[in-house]
Amino acid sequence: MDDPSTAKSDKLVGEPQPVAAIAMPSDSASMPPFPRIGHELPFVQPSSYLRPKPGSRTVPMFATPMSPIDEEQMQGLKGLRDFLRVRTSYDVLPLSFRLIVLDNDLLIRKSLNILIQNGIVSAPLWDSHHSRFAGLLTATDYINLIQYYCQFPEHIDDVDKFRLSSLRDIEKAIGVLPLETVSVHPSRPLYEACSRMLKSRARRIPLVDIDDETGRETVVSVITQYRILKFIAVNTEQHTMLLKKTVREIGLGTYKNLATAKMSDSVLEVINLMVVHNISAVPIVDKNNVVLNVFEAVDVIPCIKGGVYDELKSNVGEALARRPEDFQGIYTCQEDDRLDSIFTTLRQSRVHRLVVIDDNWHLRGIISLSDILKYVLFYGDEGEQLPAS
Q: What's the CA gap between 337 and 317, in Å, rounded?
């Protein structure tokens, strides 16, 4: 699973042999204190390798014939796709890791404490009555719970009594489509796992094995888009170094109709933006559209960890102050940065999205990991089809 509990590096060294310790949480978990107050958190400035080198302007793209830079780009993409087809999802797992599986009968408020105490933002769910995988708990489920609270305030006393098995009922009550529960066998090609995630708009996918003798399911782990892209970056530098076209040239990311918020906006207002626009992060800007921070879906979790939903009325600045002290900051790039440089960033840092800015830190766009993965899998290969779920 992609969480701070990962114990080994991402380098591919032989056949990985993960050891999963499946922990069934206790209902009597105590909550850690909030981190230090103050939302002035560090930005990770664009590194030197993200800046275009003097005199290294890329060659404009021509339809016919294909230019040398286009040929290199397609050669690099083909190398990455071939790599994803011969590697399995199992290969992405680190040499050792920790896996926390939550029983579907657990109270939702208890699950929140467990995630916070273990420094994770998602967990597989297990149906103990039928001994099978029951889906994935993510920050989106807590956002749905908040939406339920807002739509049915008269039921506030019932919210803390909900169990994880109630999540689908909550989705139905607030009128949202349930997240598609997809999984993949760990021995299947990694390309298939990537395709399934992109089709379902999921940012992580559980690896579920089936015992040949009993036919019972076993949750092996969960892999994320970040973990996959890091695996690619670490093990295929000979291919990623060929991706020399810029973010602008390949049209990577979203640049129109961007949802933004101010530091003084309430957490609830930002959550509503994420729900309306179906996004997982909202850039926080000042009156001049200068990027100050990014509020992510996972930032909702500390705001409701005590079940005090009044804290949703607090402003974004106060909410961001609840991030852990080891928060690495906001990763940025510019439209003239090249894709090979972005893969260098992925190889060296823990990146979940890139905020595209200009020289004066004005917001230009957002590049999600889904954008990068989709480009790697399908650009220039229109005949490629997503597999059926």
A: 30
Of the candidates 280, 252, 269, 286, the one whose C-alpha atom is nearest the C-alpha of residue 365 is 252
Q: What are phi and psi of 8, to 5 degrees?
A: -120, 170
Query: What local confidence, expressed as pLDDT, does residue 66 receive?
Result: 82
- Whether residue 39 contacts residue 293, with contact meaning beta carbons closer than 8 Å, is answered with yes
> Whole-angstrom distance between the N-terminal and C-terminal Cα of the chain?
22
HSE at residue 66, side-chain half, CA atoms within 13 A, is 9
Q: According to the model, what pLDDT value does residue 266 have?
A: 93
Write the DSSP symbol of residue 305: T
d(CA 326, CA 333): 22
Low-confidence winner among 84-93, 170-179, 333-342 (lowest mean pLDDT): 170-179
Euclidean distance between CA atoms 372 and 338, whole angstroms = 12
Tokens encoding 144: 């749905």
Spatial separation of the C-alpha atoms in residues 195 and 52, rounded to whole Å: 32
Q: CA dihedral defined by 101, 88, 201, 280, rounded to 10 degrees? A: 60
Residue 362, beta-bridge partner list: 290
The two tokens of residue 54 are 């003097």
Tokens of 322: 């609840």
Residue 293 has pLDDT above 80, yes or no: yes
Q: Determine if the pTM surpasses 0.85.
A: no
Find out whether 198 and 377 touch, Cβ atoms under 8 Å. Answer: yes
In the chain, at which residue ranges do the beta strands (DSSP E only) sit?
Answer: 22-23, 43-44, 99-100, 102-103, 123-127, 132-137, 204-210, 217-224, 281-285, 291-296, 330-333, 353-357, 363-368
Q: Where are the alpha helices (DSSP H) in 31-86?
A: 68-86
Pair 162, 145: CB distance under 8 Å:
yes
Measured CA distances, 375 to 42, 192, 278, 301 (Å):
29, 15, 20, 31
Look up the CATH superfamily of 41-378. CBS-domain (3.10.580.10)
CA quadruple 179, 180, 183, 188: dihedral sign: negative
Task: Tell me the C-alpha distance between 386 and 316, whole Å.
Answer: 38
**pLDDT tens per residue across span 319-376:** 898 887 778 889 999 999 999 999 999 999 999 999 999 999 999 999 999 999 999 9
> What would the pLDDT profile of 18-55 be if each residue is shown by its tens digit?
434 334 444 433 434 444 444 444 555 444 445 544 54
